[in-house]
Amino acid sequence: MGRCHKLTVSGQRDELKIQPIGQTRPVIISGRFPIFLKLQLSYFEHVKKKLQQQEGRKKTQELLSKAVYLLSMGGNDYMKVGNPKPGEVPLTDSEKKEYVTIVLGNITSTVKKVYAMGGRKFLFQAVGPLGCMPATRVSPGAEGCSHEVMSLAKMHNTAMSNVLRKLEKTLPGFKYSLFDYFSTLASITNYAPKYGFKEGQAACCSSGHFNGAFTCANTTAGFNLCHDPTK
């Protein structure tokens, strides 16, 4: 399969005049900072140069063309804008469409740049059921899933399929696989016992409603830890 450079959990720039988005975690608590998509791409460019120095141009191109590139993006972007704080106005349907278009445009641009550097085999992960994640349901009384962020995830996944089909037609040698993370995770969450779990709704380590407050391992804020993480 060759060497695999993994571009994952990445983010986009704020082009809708909304707060900066695309963090590696929705809330920075433990000193971690965002690694934006463009920065990750620059890392890959650096890796290619290093490979050329060590292996030569021909061998590097062979390695890059055989490698599989995993891209898992969009979740943090939609979590950021799909969960309006009290007093904030939710995105309109047209704004949601515009936002999804921007996110997919940045993903498409990145794919084309990796392709231009020699990448040919890509694995994409669809956005998961964000509206049902513990972080989305952390507010007391939030028993159901969030429609706002869930609608963004569904719009993204539908449009993503169309984008990939177009790329396959326009980029010679471009091969891809799209993993339906949305349906897979939703099934595990809703039918946990079927997959050998006792709990599928709450996070194992954190605090707040459904343990969705992102305080895991934060000794100052405090956190809960489930008795058996395997369950």
UniProtKB/TrEMBL annotation:
InterPro entries in UniProt: GDSL, GLIP1-5/GLL25, SGNH_hydro_sf
Which keywords appear in this protein's UniProt record, sorted alphabetically?
Answer: Signal
Recorded protein name is GDSL esterase/lipase 3-like
Q: Per the record, a Pfam family?
A: Lipase_GDSL
Species for this entry: Punica granatum (Pomegranate)
Q: Name one GO molecular function term.
A: lipase activity
Q: Which domain of life is it from?
A: Eukaryota
Q: Which family does it belong to?
A: Belongs to the 'GDSL' lipolytic enzyme family.
PANTHER family for this protein? GDSL ESTERASE_LIPASE 1-LIKE ISOFORM X2, GDSL-LIKE LIPASE/ACYLHYDROLASE
KW Cell inner membrane (keyword) present: no
